[in-house]
Write a structure and sequence with these properties.
The chain is an alpha+beta fold and 388 residues long. It has helices spanning 3-18, 39-51, 70-82, 91-104, 107-118, 233-244, 249-270, 276-305, 311-334, 350-357, 368-379; strands at residues 124-127, 143-147, 150-157, 168-174, 185-191, 197-202, 211-222, 226-227. The protein is built from eleven helices and eight strands.
Length: 388
């Protein structure tokens, strides 16, 4: 057994031994469209993992991680998904902000923020999208002005996942008056529990509220809480987006495969698989999930080099479209019964929730339209889309 296989076995054995007792009921809980499920218990699970050294496994050891190789990180995320372990509550801090601070933060920022992420003491949210900017991050209007030893932030963010649970938010704001597009932006670390920060949940088609609007009305953060050079936050923001397309996507596709296998079982049991068109769509879905995996493996070369390449945008378009189509296929497999709520007043089953929430897959984390622009302009060298 080589080192990666030994590591994989260690992860598998630990999960088998610890997803028991009070934590046994957390299997399969949480995730997109279901972040409201057992949140307090999942946070307790995260802290249990932290105490055993199973958070931030890919971070350098000097910052509290295990220093796991890319191959070991893949093994961890795959085994975590195969165990049907609960969705992580600290993934925004662990997968996005933490690696950004490891790469670009000051030693003081690393000492202040990284240990709390490792220990799951502080949770983070991402302040990027705005109502008038859509997926155009360079169009943000939230502004921050220097006032002595503090930044004063005013503006609005939207579609902010888990803002209602977060202790901190990393915010892209315009800090140079008159600057436009990519210039004059700064990447600020802002505490959420303070006057001047208001969080308003957004109710989605599923009836849940994991997305939020966040209003900053002269909210404050210390002057030292800017990552990178003030006014040059675009590069930092792009680095964070690169880390978002990391090795955890290998765990995501394990979940996709489980959904597909469960749907195939349903189609066989209820007779939907007797329809040759349904059989063809199920077969195409199986080919699709294999493609998702192989593209994710291809992307690891870029991750190992420091940032994913164009495969990240290709993969985002493919998996989000595939997952949305799986939701549509699930409704056809369920038949007319899929149109009825399971209970009052609006209780959805897993397939209905998949169908409704997967409509958002092609929008969040960079819409498919934006991803196609990135591929066209930055990879293929095609003319840029006209802008006013």
């Amino acid at each position: 057994m080589n080192a990666v296989e030994e590591f994989r076995a260690e992860v598998r054995d630990w999960l088998a031994a610890n997803l028991s007792g009070d934590f046994a009921g957390l299997r399969g809980r949480g995730g997109p469209g279901r972040e409201h499920e057992c949140f307090a218990q999942r946070l307790a699970w995260e802290r249990h993992m932290a105490a055993a050294g199973w958070t931030c496994v890919g971070w350098p050891k000097e910052h509290g991680g295990r220093g796991a190789t890319i191959e070991e990180q893949v093994a961890f995320h795959e085994e975590y998904a195969l165990a049907n372990a609960p969705a992580r509550v600290g993934h925004i801090g662990e997968q996005l902000l933490g690696p950004t601070l490891v790469a670009l933060g000051t030693p003081a920022q690393q000492r202040r923020f990284l240990p709390a992420i490792v220990a799951a003491r502080e949770l983070w949210c991402q302040g990027y999208s705005e109502p008038d900017a859509g997926s155009d991050l360079a169009g943000v209007r939230t502004r921050a002005e220097r006032d002595g030893d503090e930044w004063v932030i005013t503006g609005q963010k939207i579609w902010t996942s888990l803002a209602h649970e977060a202790d901190w938010c990393f915010v892209v704001a315009r800090t140079e008056p008159g600057a436009t597009r990519h210039q004059g932006l700064s990447y600020l670390l802002v505490p959420m529990d303070q006057p001047g920060v208001e969080v308003r949940p957004i109710t989605q088609l599923t009836g849940t509220c994991e997305f939020n609007e966040v209003f900053f009305d002269a909210a404050r953060t210390h002057a030292s809480h800017v990552v990178g050079v003030p006014g040059e936050g675009w590069q930092v923001a792009m680095a964070t987006l690169g880390f978002e397309r990391g090795v955890s996507t290998l765990g995501q596709q394990v979940g996709f495969r489980r959904e597909l296998e469960t749907l195939i079982d349903l189609a066989v049991r209820n007779g939907a698989a007797d329809d040759p068109l349904i059989r063809d769509r199920l077969a195409r879905a199986w080919v699709g999930v294999e493609t998702i995996r192989f593209n994710a493996l291809r992307m690891l070369d870029g991750v190992a080099a420091g940032a994913p390449g164009p495969e990240a945008s290709i993969g985002k378009i493919f998996w989000s479209t595939w997952h949305r189509e799986l939701g549509e296929l699930a409704m056809d497999v369920c038949g007319a019964g899929g149109m009825l709520a399971a209970g009052e007043p609006y209780e959805l089953d897993d397939w209905q929730r998949l169908f409704l929430f997967s409509r958002a897959d092609t929008i969040y984390a960079g819409s498919n339209e934006i991803q196609r622009n990135i591929i066209a302009e930055r990879v293929l060298g095609l003319p840029k889309e006209p802008r006013p």
